[in-house]
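Protocol step 4 of 6: structure prediction from sequence.
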Amino acid sequence: MNSLLTLAAALPVAAGWAGHVAVLRRGLSRARRDPLTGLRTRDGFTRRATRLLRDERAVVVLADVDHFKQINDRFGHAAGDALLVSVARRLQHATGANGVCGRLGGDEFAAVLIDKDGTAADLLTLLNAVLARPAEGQPTEVATTVSLGWVRVTDHPGEDLSALLRHADEAMYAAKHVAHRPTGSTLGRLLRSGLAGPRTRRRGSVRASA
């Protein structure tokens, strides 16, 4: 009888603790999600991305929204937020269920995708053009280009996520440099230089004109 009474007394405590743990887990999950875009925050992205880097087909991508401050200044923060949400949704769609996307802060995003069929260069060139389209539900003027830089994990054996993001960052700024030359087609120059070249390229950067 005493055992039954002890068990009965313990059950509410156990249930209360289980509920407390569930609340803590939900809070932790929310903390690892960006409230605006729904993407993982830097911490959540890093945890998931680090696991994905064990796959030799992994590709690390860095994306930066060009002229974002000008969008905010001209159309207001609501339009700027809509643009960020649009970029996040399109990047996540391209990354797929097997990869991960994160918002590192401000207008900077990162992703790790698994390149199953060796077409990452083609996919990212197409994605870059898609990212330049106007944000959903906004005037056509609420649009800008997005610079992308990417690297394959197999080209940098033994390097961690932080180092791979630095390499992707270098590729991304190479794209910005090419894009700001005064004449010619940006994408055409990239293709001729090989930065957005054939699918055999293992490191690249792309920036399409809006």
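Step 5 (inspection) to follow. Residues 134 and 142 are 6 Å apart (CA to CA).
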